[in-house]
Design goal:
By secondary structure, the protein is mainly α. It has a domain of 227 residues. Helix content is 63%, strand content 2%. Strands 1-2 form a two-stranded antiparallel ribbon. A two-stranded antiparallel sheet has the order 3-4. The longest helix has 35 residues. It is globular and about 75 Å long. The chain starts with a helix and ends in a 5-residue tail after the last helix. The relative contact order is 0.12.
């Protein structure tokens, strides 16, 4: 650990905080004050008329139905593109069709914002499939995340300028199109140009073959990488054009590109906290949620940086110089700090990107990556859905605070009653059900163990990581598990689908019950939902719930592996 590493961490979070308000204010004006952009409003009306979108407000059931049906259609289209890519253009390598089970897994993965990849992108998918199929879904998945955030925020807030009918949550189609046209697309264009300036490739060339210095032949895949890389990061999608993801020099060539890729991962999730504060007419609400996110992100970054800066105890008995820490699986151009911070932010969000081999992290460093996801992807989380998940914990925290003082809890002037708490508890319980059931089944079944390359505690960690990444729609992986099997392709696809749309359905149900509630004036007994006390309570609830749920399996997996490694043994 050195001063340069800490300066990089501090600089990134300082720049993030500086950008939160201006971008958050822009997002608020896009969604809630359409009169701020008269030129865009005129274009928008013509577009909605062309698409036959009336823009009427939808209740939570109609909003959820539109959202889920749109995404199911997306799964079908992406599945067909992959299974017929040999017939489509922009396939200079003449790649064959993707097997049906892998195509289904990939289609569900990209539509659910997971971007889990059980394949090597440059040797499995054509440029058409990557650009038209995957990149388009990166925009739609991120747009869907922004839409569900808006619906929940409108349900909680006092009023919303975009709600036409009382008791509705807005219109899914309007929210989706605005998110893509006014937020994701312009930011992606700007970021793509920056990436190209750093050396990220953007072309339609076929694979190029070169003669190396050793005299051997090496093939280098080409393609439209910068355009996919931009929305991959800004939309917290993950899913690299190349198998090596952001460790590949064509995706992430310089330390400067690495820094701004990390910033892109958390930029929109952080800005949405200020947007939320504006929507609730109380910006303190947003700053409190951001404070909780930043505090947990800094804790995770510090722990991972510390553990990865230590020598690997398994190598202590060998004549290996480890003054630089655990450098296995890391890019030297980024170093320990750049790799640790990237890994932390990628698992804090649903980004799923990587610029290092997570399977090579120390047992405790890898455990922090797991914990980041097991917290519920609420530390920034995916675009929109991260704050969406954080608000579920807010409901639970407010309820517990109400029990402490013996009165019906209130949030933003609306009473939190039994129905909202039940939905919030189901939301929080959905993830451990999917993660632990999938892990247990795979550990006990021969078809779950057959593709596992590492036995013992580390093997358990690899399987646990796979189902955690799928349920939380993250997409990163411990590569020691070959997940491209019929069992893992199908079960992970099911977990991804239920983790994404099951949670959205429950969250929108809460929004639907909250939107019709009357506002009550705050009194002396009202527990304030901002300030240091609330932030500490919120962080405490998140950590306690996760610890009670996942402590046993973490002890059996990464912590047991750590104890073995301290003895110089493989688990």
């Amino acid at each position: 650990m050195d001063i340069n590493g800490w300066l990089q961490i501090c600089l990134l979070f300082t720049l993030l905080l500086a950008l939160t308000k201006p971008l958050g204010l822009y997002l608020y004006k896009v969604y809630e004050t359409p009169q701020s952009f008269k030129i865009l409003t005129s274009f928008e009306k013509r577009l909605f008329k062309l698409l036959s979108i009336e823009g009427e407000g939808q209740d939570w059931k109609s909003y959820a139905s539109s959202l889920i049906l749109f995404n199911i259609l997306g799964i079908m289209v992406l599945f067909l593109i992959q299974t017929n890519q040999e017939l489509l253009p922009l396939n200079p390598q003449n790649l064959a069709a993707v097997p049906w089970d892998l195509a289904l897994n990939t289609a569900v993965s990209f539509v659910t914002h997971t971007n889990w990849q059980a394949y090597s992108g440059e040797t499995s998918l054509s440029q058409f499939t990557q650009m038209v199929g995957l990149t388009w879904q990166n925009f739609c998945a991120a747009g869907t995340g922004l839409a569900v955030f808006l619906a929940l925020a409108r349900g909680f807030s006092h009023q919303s300028l975009t709600i036409i009918q009382r008791g509705t949550l807005g219109n899914f189609w309007v929210d989706l199109i605005k998110s893509i046209l006014y937020v994701l697309l312009p930011l992606s264009v700007i970021f793509s140009l920056f990436l190209v300036s750093q050396g990220v490739i953007q072309n339609f060339s076929p694979t190029l073959t070169f003669t190396t210095l050793e005299g051997t032949q090496q093939s280098l895949a080409m393609g439209p990488v910068a355009s996919q890389e931009a929305i991959k990061l800004l939309g917290t999608n993950g899913g690299g054009f190349f198998n090596a993801n952001s460790a590949h020099p064509f995706e992430n060539p310089t330390p400067l590109s690495n820094f701004f890729q990390m910033l892109a991962l958390v930029l929109i999730p952080a800005a949405l906290t200020y947007t939320y504060g504006k929507m609730t007419n109380d910006t303190k609400q947003g700053w409190s949620l951001l404070a909780a996110m930043v505090a947990m992100a800094l804790m995770g970054a510090a722990f991972i940086y510390y553990y990865e800066s230590q020598p690997n105890p398994l190598l202590n008995h060998l004549s290996v110089l480890q003054e630089g820490g655990n450098l296995e699986g890391k890019e030297t151009r980024f170093g320990i700090a750049g790799s640790s911070l990237f890994a932390n932010l990628a698992t804090d969000t649903s980004g799923g990107s990587s610029n290092a081999m997570y399977d090579s992290f120390t047992p405790l460093g890898g455990m922090i990556l797991l914990i980041n996801m097991l917290l519920g992807e609420v530390v920034f989380g995916g675009v929109g859905v991260g704050l969406f998940g954080m608000l579920m914990f807010v409901v639970l925290s407010i309820f517990i605070a109400g029990l402490m003082v013996g009165r019906i809890p209130e949030y933003l002037g609306k009473k939190i009653e039994g129905k909202e708490v039940r939905f919030a508890v189901l939301y929080i319980a959905l993830y451990p059900f999917l993660i632990l059931l999938g892990t247990a089944w795979s550990v006990l079944a021969p078809f779950g163990l057959s593709s596992l390359q590492n036995p013992g505690a580390h093997g358990l960690s690899e399987i646990l990581y796979a189902y955690t990444s799928a349920a939380q729609n993250n997409g990163s992986a411990f590569a020691g598990l070959n997940a491209n099997t019929l069992w893992y392709n199908l079960t992970l696809a099911l977990v991804m689908f239920l983790g994404r749309f099951g949670s959205i359905f429950l969250g929108l149900a809460i929004a639907g019950t909250m939107v019709n509630k009357k506002i009550v004036q705050a009194s002396a007994g009202t527990f304030p939902s901002h300030g240091i006390l609330f932030v500490c309570l919120l962080i405490g609830i998140i950590l306690i719930v996760s610890a009670l749920t996942y402590f046993p399996v973490l002890m059996l997996g990464p912590f047991t592996e750590h104890l073995y490694s301290m003895q110089g043994k493989m688990s």
